[in-house]
Amino acid sequence: MRWLNLFIMLLFAVLMLYATTGLPGHADPQAPANTHVSPTYIEDTIKDTHTPNVVTSVLADYRGYDTLGETVVIFTAGLACVLILMKRKGNDKTTLSKHHRSDHM
Amino acid sequence: MIKQHYQSIIVQTICSLLIPFIQLFALYVIFHGHYGPGGGFQGGVLLAVSIILQRLYLGIKISHQKFSPRLAMAFAAVGLLIYGLAGIIPMIFGGSFLDYGNLPLFWVHDAERRALGILIVEIGIGLGVFGTLVLIFDNLVGERW
Amino acid sequence: MVWQLDFWLLVILIVTAVIALSLKDLLAAVAALSAYSFFVALLFSQMGAIDVAFVEATLGAGISGVLFIVALFLTRRRSED
Amino acid sequence: MVVLDLFVSRYVYFMTVVLLAIGLYGMLGKRNLLKKLISMNIFQTAIFLFFIEGATKRGGSVPVVDELIGIEAAKYINPLPHVLILTGIVVGLSLTGVALAFLLVLYRAYKTLDDRAIMANMKENLE
């Protein structure tokens, strides 16, 4: 079993090393990822949004729909944590009882 | 696990002095996200760090009286609601979804209106992340609330 | 963009990852994981991604370690492998 | 000489592949569930490193537009992978929280974190 794991790891590493030879080099300005849409973002951010930090303007304005889905995902993760761990002490008095309420800051 | 006070006067004093500064820095990070590194995610995480530090040095029982986990859940939901409203209100005023140029702030310039929309959205993200992280910590500790 | 700094930070990353996986004491493994996250944040800021470095330094090296240690105190500290 | 040239232009990718392999080995080979979670974090961080490495530019500055540098796109680093990774890190932490919650539930049910012991216990309960 241990040798099988090592073999899978080595196979994965060799495949990935072979794949890296087709990638663009270190810090190449003409790489396809650097020439597609990001020059538009950098050059238009002052004119469109008055926001010098390009990461913030892309995060909240140009790609705000993406971030909305992201916020929904982390809120769902918090709710899932509540629903998983509230279940174990539900037999005696219920955890959402009213007389235990103490939420004044 | 963490039920009583941490029995050291030095740790208590330093932590209670440190928490307001962490919260102030978190607010600075949220509101200064337009001009430097920062934004909603980082500021929300720093707010959550301040509450978790309070939970650690003050004990869970007393800290739950100061900041209840139910309040944290309300913060997370309100943050998500702020984000959703910042998306829906421009639709009412004739734009598309999440188009901050159509927010009803008629006295400012168009691009400045977009900057304000970004600020509103960052506040929503910060509250959401803050509430969610405090909620995960409270449920992992497993104290009844 | 000093490439020597890049290279040695990556070497430290690999060493820290191997340490975090090979320790039998899980609390020490979590501490090694926090150190790993901090070096990743250093590498991000060295590559120019300051926002990502900020969020990695607060989340990965801060809250992630706290959550792991809370789960560790409620379960068992020793590991067999 | 060709090999040295390849190494100099792609060493970050090579190291990232080594980190990915370490994380994959931990996820498959380690038997403790918390160790599996730690190696999942290592795997995830290696993917983030790959993305950030793809965003760098020679002679590029930090992506905050400054008056002294100008607004040419060639003088700033590509900001788009930063945004994707920024959201990815936060999702990764919430994923870790949910995984730790499942782990606590498993420990309360079986009193161990070893995956083979859990599997054997499950088989006994089935029969």
* Estimated share of beta-strand residues of chain D: under 5%
Strand count, sense and closure of the main sheet of chain A?
A: none
Oligomer: heterotetramer
User: Tally of extended strands of chain D?
Assistant: 0
Rg on CA atoms of chain D, Å: 21 Å
Number of strands of chain A: 0
CATH architecture of chain D: Orthogonal Bundle
User: Sheet with the most strands of chain D?
Assistant: none
- Helix share, percent of chain D: over 70%
Kindly state the mean pLDDT of chain D as a whole number? 91
Taking pLDDT < 50 over at least 5 consecutive residues as the criterion, the unreliable ranges of chain D are none
Name the chain pair with the biggest interface and residue counts per chain: A-D, 49 and 52 residues
Approximate helicity band of chain A: 55-70%
The string of secondary-structure elements of chain A, in order, is HHHHH
Count of helical regions of chain A: 5
CATH fold name of chain D, please?
Helix Hairpins
For the record, give the distance between the C-alpha atoms at the N and C termini of chain A, rounded to a whole number: 55 Å
Look at the helices and sheets of chain D and give the structural class: mainly alpha
- Work out the radius of gyration of chain A: 25 Å
Work out the strand percent of chain A.
Answer: under 5%
- Stretches of chain A where pLDDT falls below 50 for ≥5 residues? 92-105
Describe the structure.
The complex is a heterotetramer of chains A (105), B (145), C (81) and D (127). Chain A is mostly helical. Chain A has a domain at 38-89. Helix content of chain A is 63%, strand content 0%. Chain A is built from 5 helices and no strands. Chain A has helices at residues 2-20, 32-35, 38-49, 54-62, 64-85. Chain B has 145 residues and is mostly helical. Chain B has one domain (9-141). Chain B has helices at residues 9-31, 40-58, 60-66, 69-92, 110-141. Chain B is elongated and about 60 Å long. Chain C is mainly α. Chain C has one domain. Chain C is 81% helix and 0% strand. Chain C is built from 3 helices and no strands. In chain C, helix 1 (3-22) packs antiparallel against helix 2 (26-46) and helix 2 (26-46) runs antiparallel to helix 3. The model of chain C has no long low-confidence stretch (mean pLDDT 91). Chain D has a single domain, classed as Helix Hairpins, CATH 1.10.287.3510. Chain D has helices at residues 2-29, 33-55, 80-110, 115-126. In chain D, helix 1 (2-29) packs antiparallel against helix 2 (33-55) and helix 2 (33-55) packs antiparallel against helix 3 (80-110).
